[in-house]
Design goal:
Pfam families: CMD. InterPro entries: 4CMD/NDH-1_regulator, AhpD-like, CMD-like. By secondary structure, the chain is mainly alpha-helical. Helix content is 69%, strand content 0%.
Length: 74
């Protein structure tokens, strides 16, 4: 995941996020991993990566709750 954010490979990163969610990572763990890269890769790449995470979450679950970084549950 870190290498894909660093290289800025959006399609591969999106696939990696989907696989990560499938194997059990939470959105918080994914977001924390990305945020830890801030000092190494810069703010623009982090913003792009977080936008991809949000889009993947919206596609998978239909809703995205930005306050708690988890999908809405009904």
């Amino acid at each position: 995941m870190s290498a894909l954010v660093t290289l800025g490979t959006k399609p591969q990163f999106e696939l990696n996020i989907n696989v990560s969610l499938t194997v059990g990572l939470t959105s918080q763990e994914i977001s924390e991993t990305i945020m830890n890269l801030l000092t190494y890769v810069g703010f623009p790449r982090i913003l792009n990566a977080l936008k991809i995470v949000k889009r993947v979450y919206q596609e998978r679950y239909g809703f995205y709750n930005s306050k708690c970084n988890q999908p809405y549950s009904f």
